[in-house]
Each structure stands twice: as C-alpha cells, then as structure tokens.
Amino acid sequence: MENKVLAKVEGREIKESDLNLLVKNLGQNAAYFQGEDGRKKLIDELVMHELMYLDAVERNLENDWEFLEVFNEMKRSMLQQYNLRKMFNSITVSDEELKDFYEENKNLYYLPEMVKASHILTDTEEKANEVLEEIAGGMSFEDAAMKYSVCPSKQVGGALGQFGRGQMVKEFEDAVFSMEVGQISHPVKTQFGYHIIKLTDHTPPGIADFEEVYQEVKDNYFAIKQEKVYKNKKDELTKKYDVVIFE
Question: pTM above the 0.85 mark?
Fold first, then answer.
C-alpha cells in the first residue's frame, strides 16, 4: 500500500503512516476526527508537531537542563522496557512442548456441561398450554416463539444461546439439564412466568481437545516460560551488581 505524502515541513515529509500512528495513539478519541474535516484537522496537528520540533531545535531547548532531566528519565525507562522486550522476544516454544504441557495440565482445560436451548415465555400456564397445543398441531417452535413469547428472545425464535449451570434461575436450570436434545418441555414456572423449553444441544463435561485450546495452552505455557526467564535474569543480575534493599 502506498505511503502517501500528506504534507512537507522544511523538507520533512509527513506521510499516511504518520497519520495512522496518530489515529492509533488517539484510541477512542479518534472517533471525534471522522470524515474529511477530521482528517484535515489531524494533518494540521501533525504539521504543528513538526513546527514545534523545529522551533525547539532553533531555540536550543534540547540543551535545557529541565529537558535533559526529563529526557534522561524517559531514556532510562525506555531502555528498561526495551531490554525486557528483547529478553521476552527471545523465548520460543515448540508444539511438542505445548503438547507435553497440555498432557501434564489437562485439568486446566476442563469444559463444564453446557446446553443450548430456546424458550417461549408466557404470562400464564393456560396460555403456555395453548401454545403447546399449537406446536403439537404442526406450528414450529420458532414460529410459536415469535408469535407468542413475551421475552425479547422471540425475535430469534426464542434462542437463548449456550449456557452452563448457574446461569439461569433454578427452576429453569433443573428442567433444561434433565431434558433430551430435541425435547420440548411442559410449562416450567419461574419468577418470570411460564416457560416452554426446547433443548437444541447438549455438551457433556470433559477435557477440551488440544486443538480446541491450542492458543490458551500456548498463552499459559509462554507466561510460565516468561516468568522463569525473568527470575533467572533477576538472579543473574543480582549476583553481578551490588544490590541493597532496606525494607
């Protein structure tokens, strides 16, 4: 992609990449600079940055003691972070290491029992039974939900998505976790009304396959290696340099 030149200040080119970096650094505030007018304002800001730099150089501000004090502190901090980053970037992990870690720590990748369900919520048991009769007569569960349910989920045929134990009220949970896939329940009373529940999927508890949690395994193992490298480096440098801790 072409890195378009947007402006020049004393021969120094301000490019599209400079604008992209500024937008990135603005974070959520970038929303205030949408459209062509916002783009022009940001380009003007980049020009002003360059003008302020030139003015500072001309006035020899780089040799002010206040600037040097701040600069040296920033340099110190940046060197610390750069050194840490280089140290961590040198860490490598192989798939073989990850598989070994996964096998030794399978308990970390336990998946709880999960279900997918849809429901139709009515205000009375009588209405719920009437809806059940219509479903028995041939109306699809999804159409019945869209027509009769008083829950916002009616817009998606009553679908509630996937959930585990502890996420629904007890009466609903007890019912849905005792059902078979494809089964439609009798009316279930909760504090919200009467639910007709359809179980659409059930995943028993178990250990996730390595491929399913590959990235999670990698993140976990990498964090452990990071901590180990950090500790080893600390021990090495503590022996090399004089360290006195008073508290």
Answer: no
